[in-house]
Amino acid sequence: MSGRRTRFALIGAAAALTIVAAFCLYMVLPRPRPRKAPGLVYGPAGVLNVLIIGKDARAVGPVVNEGRQRNKREEQSHSDIIIICHINFSIPAVNLVAIPRDLLVQVPGITRAASPTDFTNMEKITHTYAIGGDRLLRRTIESLLGIRIDRSIAFDFDTFRMAFDLLRPFVGVLRVGGVSLTERSQALQFARRRYGLRFDDADRCRNAVSLVRGIIARTWWLANTRLGDVLVRRMLAIVGSDTDLTKEDAEEIAGLLRQAGFNPAMVRTAVLVSEGAEVTLNRYHETLSCYLPAYREIEKQVNRFLLDKKAVQALDFMSQQPYRVPAYFESSYVVPMAAESGATALPFDTTGMDSQRLSTSIGDTIPHRVPFAEDSPPADSGR
Q1: Distance CA 12, CA 261 (A)
Q2: Which candidate, 206, 200, 361, 194, places its Cα nearest to that of 291?
Q3: Which residues are within 8 A (CB) of 144 and not within 5 positions of it... i.e. 6 or more apart?
Q4: Pick from 308, 31, 257: nearest CA to 249
Q5: H-type helices in 2-155, by residue range?
């Protein structure tokens, strides 16, 4: 009798294991490609640009269960991390291009700079998010780089921690920039760290795109699986209204990339070439730590990483390579009025980044210099 019970127990255990294995297989095997997401319109040649934002919204009122639920946050915040995730389904390719938060830009409807080097009458790109939110930041990037932003997703401190916790079982120990990331608050601190780094915000940009690339590499196998769909739904629920990316969009993107044979090893990363400097911004009547854009180098980066012109040689700026430093970097912008800045107006505007107008070589080729950095945050760290 006991032998029969043992056999029944073994059969039951085997059946249970088979059911569990079948369920796991069902969840992780690629599912049929979904129908095209409504409203997802690709750009020329099947291109999509998704803006990833890390915002510094602080909690309002008491913080409860920090990192595990979303607390009430400030309505206005700065975009500390700005990454364009450029997807080209036809190649296929995924490029991550970071924009330094303190890059000086023309903001549509806000600034009135007289020339591309009238920096004292420009604005830090991080401030555009505080002024006009996602919509104004998108318009500013589109004007600066001559591309279209199709979707965006923003993370605050809570949602970043919650998203990292959600993915951690699949990511494991993630080693980025010589640091092993295993815990949500540690990952947030790593992504936000700026002060004390050798190259200041340029290094923060490098860390951010490397972190995103690492997560893509570790989780790509989940793309277009039912388990992956569950994670996408939970991720979008965490982010809430801070995105216009839908579950159908995400499934369609993953399906098209998988169909095209995308491999996460193909992900390329770049940081817009710029240099740290102190600039008096007339909007605030203050001298602040800013980044001056190297227009000629940025134009090449746009062509290479955002327009997929493979023949264009462009710095990824992930390493400190030499590049052609423009003459306007040598001017002083620490003055109360833009008219006294000594800025040299270039014979072009940067709207659309027209290659013909930007072809003039400026300055001499010298090794990259260390950007402006501080050992500790300034009193007004928001600016």
Answers
A1: 41
A2: 200
A3: 105, 106, 125, 350
A4: 257
A5: 2-28, 125-145
d(CA 204, CA 193) in angstroms, rounded, equals: 6
Contacts of 107 (CB under 8 A, 6+ apart): 122, 123, 127, 128, 131, 136, 140
pTM: predicted TM-score of the whole model, two decimal places: 0.79
Beta strand 47-55 pairing with 151-155: parallel
**249-300 residue pLDDT tens:** 998 898 889 888 999 998 999 999 999 999 999 999 999 999 999 999 999 9
Question: How many Å is the Cα radius of gyration of the chain?
Answer: 24
Domains of the chain: 47-366 (3.40.630.190)
Plot region of 232 (φ>0 → left; ψ -120 to 50 → alpha; else → beta) = alpha
C-beta separation of 135 from 128 below 8 A: no
Report DSSP letters for 80-91, one per residue: EEEEEEEEETTT
Residue 321 to residue 199: CA distance in whole angstroms: 13
**Main-chain phi, psi angles of 140, to 5 degrees:** -65, -45
Report the residue count for the chain: 383
> What does the block give as tokens for 165?
């916790």
Structure-block tokens of residue 180: 């092993």
Query: What 3-state class would DSSP assign to 113?
Result: coil
211: left (phi over 0), alpha (psi -120 to 50) or beta: alpha
Q: Could you tell me the pLDDT band of residue 56, with boundaries at 50, 70 and 90? A: confident
Query: Residue type at 223?
Result: A
| Cis peptide bond upstream of 92, omega within 30 | yes
Residue 221 neighbours by CB under 8 Å, 6+ apart: 28
The two beta strands, 274-281 and 268-271, are unpaired
Q: How many other CB atoms sit within 10 Å of the CB of residue 133?
A: 18
Residue with tokens 């990292």: 164
Angle of the 226-239 helix axis to the 247-259 helix axis, nearest 10: 140
